[in-house]
Amino acid sequence: MLQFNKKNKLGSGRVCLHVTEEGTSIAVSRLQGTQLQLQLCQYFSALDIAESPDIIQDFIEKNNLNGANCSLVLNASEYQLLLSEAPQVSEHEICEALWWKVKDLVAFDIDNAQIDYLDLPEDSAKHQGRKMYAVIADKKKVKARVDWAEALGLNPIAVEIPETALLHLVTDLCSGVTGTSILYLDSEQSLLMLMSEGNMYLARTLQYDYLERMDAVVLDVQRSMDYYESQIGKPPCSKVVVLPQQESDGAMMQTLAINMGVEINSVDINQLIDSLETIPKDLEQHCLLVISGALRLDKKAK
After folding, report:
1. Do 147 and 133 belong to one domain?
2. Same domain, yes or no: 160 and 207
3. Which residues pair with 190 in a beta bridge?
4. Measured distance CA(74)–CA(138) in Å, rounded
5. CATH number of the domain that 204 lies in?
6. 154 and 293 assigned to the same domain
7. Distance CA 170, CA 1 (A)
8. Are residues 177 and 257 in the same domain?
9. 152 and 124 in one domain?
10. CB neighbours of residue 198 within 10 Å
11. What confidence tens digit (pLDDT) does each residue in 4-33 have?
């Protein structure tokens, strides 16, 4: 998403960080041949950090990560994702043209906004013009995150949003023509992405605690799949993939299976990545976004 004019240390892998009110997650990758391998990941709760303010700095130093390439995944309060018709302008004018389309919808100070965009496939609208997502970031908050990473001794080279971070992990799960709904569950902000042939066609944020409102989750997924079929014109979604890994017989998975009428799967991240060690389920719950972000190959970056 957001890139920096800094020297990218090619071949050194990367560190990925994600900070929320609940805590900070970190994942580290190394290049093995042509692929990135997950070396380690760690989660520090807000309580851990309050009790030991230098705990993240100590982690960086202990694992010899000073100077490593670093990417940051924004949290829900730091960005907005707004769907818009694609402006009919040259590529270098897209951001400015998009700004005029979405500026009245920005939830924070527009003078403190930074804009980027996610291009959608050419067949992303059945009855209307081509669509794209405007990504509006809070410039001050992004700068604060970048300054913090630099203070840790890291080399920030990119800032991502959760949607793009997840794409590194789930694209191969959605290679078929038939649609797949990716449902990433998080107490702060869950994400729903509808994909086909490795491409994202629709993304929505669910800004509520899913554990307290499973009826709302079911309704949002159903409405999104209906929109995907009727307005985008894609074949119906045949399955929902739930991340992070859930117990298949858990109450939440049963609720989805009973109400959705499509296949409901939950995938263990260890089946999707190359990792030095098996990622335990409790760590996967906290670190899935940064694991995916750390496994982004720079040559695939857009």
Report:
1. no
2. no
3. 206
4. 10
5. 3.30.420.40
6. yes
7. 17
8. yes
9. no
10. 15
11. 445 555 556 799 999 999 999 999 999 888
In this structure, what token pair is assigned to residue 286?
């906290």
- Cα–Cα distance measured from residue 79 to residue 114, given in angstroms and rounded to the nearest whole number: 9
Which residues in 60-73 are b (16+ Cβ under 10 Å) and which e? beeeebeebbbbbb
Q: What pLDDT score was predicted for residue 193?
A: 96
The lowest-confidence range among 102-106, 107-111, 263-267, 269-273 is: 107-111
130-144 pLDDT per residue, tens = 789 999 999 999 999
Same domain, 8 and 121: no
Residues 130 and 153 in one domain: no
Q: In whole angstroms, what separates CA 196 from the centre of its chain?
A: 17
CATH number at residue 96: 3.30.1490
- Tell me: cis bond preceding 244? Omega within 30 of 0 counts: yes
**179 in the same domain as 193:** yes
Number of domains within the chain? 3
Q: Which of 159, 165, 212 is nearest to 188 (CA)?
A: 212
Give the integer Cα–Cα distance in Å for 97 and 94: 5
Helices (H), 171-250: 214-230
Supply the angle between the helices 162-170 and 281-294 in degrees, to the nearest 10.
100
CB 293 within 8 A of CB 267: no
Cα–Cα distance for residue pair 26/240, rounded to 1 Å: 27
**pLDDT for position 2:** 57
What are residue 284's phi and psi, to 5 degrees? -60, -35
Structural domain containing residue 222:
169-267
